[in-house]
Fold this protein.
Amino acid sequence: MHLLLIQLGLILGLSRLLGGLFGRLRQPYVVGEMVAGILLGPSVFGAVAPAVHAGLFPEESLPALHTLSQAGLLLFMFLVGLELDPALLRGRMRAAVVTSLVSILAPFVLGVGLAFYLHPYLTDGAIPFAGFALFMGAAMSVTAFPVLSRILAERNLLRTRVGVVTVACAAVDDVSAWLILAGVVAFVQADGAGTLLLTLAGVGLFAVVLLRVVHPMLRHLEAYYHNRGRLTQEVLGVALLTLLGGAAVTEWLGVHALFGAFLVGTVMPKDRGFVRELRAKLEDVTVVLLLPLFFVYAGLHTEIGLLDGWTLWLDALLILLVAIIGKFGGSAVAARATGLSWRDASALGVLMNTRGLMELVILSIGLELGVIPPVLFAMMVLMALATTLMTTPVLGWIYPMRLIRQGTEDGTAAEVYTVLIPVSLPSSGRELLRVASVLAPPGPTRYYALHLVRARDQSLFSVRPEHPPHEVLQPLREAANLHDIEVRALTFVSRTLSEDLLATAEAKGADLIVMGWHKPVVSRSVLGGMTGEVMRAARADVVVYVARGFEAWQHILVPYHEGVHDRGALEMAQRIAARTGARLTVLYVTSLQGGGTASHPTPSPASRLSNTETPWIKTLEHDDPVEAAVEEARLGYDLIVVGADERWEMEPSPFSLRHERLATASTASLLIVRKNLTANQPDQRK
């Protein structure tokens, strides 16, 4: 037991470390875990420190790892089946079926053809050719549905045409590939034609029972879930018992327990809330703890050192080329024939070429059954790793983020003023739209509401935000409909929020970014964290709104001192006053000259005001402009509009105890304005 705990800790630690590292490189998390498995195997760890490796992973300890990894695979295949929704095929049946059929047949035929070349000298005739060839075809045909879905989500392609068709194709592909594998396993394990037919008939009968008997019964779980309002332990227990029963039946029939787990997952209720909660209960432990055990167990049987000659490395390269040609080529050509553009068809081909974890599952079955030798297992593992690694960079080349962010819309016309409203919480959407609508100048205006979903790398199946995107933007949409404002909603999955927000603003040609303020994780600063990064780098005017109440603005204060951001603040305040009828006061602070105060117009701020606006211009002589503004702000203002200028200490500074005093000392709502300096050369902040 002590050795098992050490093994678990080592596997978990290295898997999380490498998974996070590859995640930063914009690779699927599973790639890092696959690499961790290879590193802990005889190819690296065993070669560098054989004695230590033998002590940590002795042969007698492997059955325990194998048992735990198989439990993880059962849960994983159940989750894969759970994620398959027949609704994905509505309206896409022809494209999905045609593309999926070709994407399976092409690599299957090429894999069987390759078996004619590989079988004679890789197996020495010890493995029957028929099983070897069929297994090679099946292994070449698989697509990693969970990893593919994850990449689509992170590339923000799920709602595009190519994303929708790809998910539908992968769903059909997954079912078809596992049916083929079930047939191959039944063929390999059958004693003769009679046994094979009996096995296939038993599997067919079991599938019918699942669809006609078990599926209707499981609908009661969905009803019970809705009545209780949550997923109870009783419901979870019934789901797991059904999973175990299905796995036991297919194992008894001579196929494989994993196939039964997959079938049970496909017949589970597909209610969105039910699936989300059931997945949440099972996924984290499965993905974080149990699946890394499978990767390491597979890595312990991956001996890259068996490729001890250039001919074997050439064979490994040939396997990779055949895999890419069959899967990518077949999928892309078929997708083009169904009406997709070459760009979309190529993107679909790249995604369908992703093997990932599913390939390792099939290879492990083949190795366990003795259908493939260890040297071919190592070659195929390298192929699975390479095809998964290449997906993200090649997809980025075919489908740059610039095109994804622009979507199918035309570029923003020069005469249309564009406002981007990033929304992170449902509660902030309405107020941000109110601010944006009064800050837009007269004339045509285009509004974009943007919600960035932070990518959570620990999930292989989907991105689970704290608030679903449609719920986050719903209050803003309701307010827009109420006031007859057209707002275009954008939702992206993001690894780096500030970078993607800036890139979206650039792609949409934003003239103004209206942001709310929420307390940053690291910095307490109003202008720290992501907010500060956007304000410093945006090629647009940026305003940050700190709400201290939601009543109509009656009296607006603008601290002013001729800086470029002060002029921007005055411009924004004038727009608000013109739209709302609020009273505008401009505070102009001069250096102290003998004490006292003045309350009269002065030329400096007045020169910046339009002829139609006559706000109260209040001049104060004070040796501390910030304290003067704080004292004035306490006199009953409900909105302060201030430039992000050093004079008002609105520039983030870790060394200033008075930093952002105007923001923290005032009870009024605050609107911080930073003008786009890229159009002002040289910098005119002072």
Observations:
- The longest strand covers residues 445-454.
- The chain has 26 helices and ten strands.
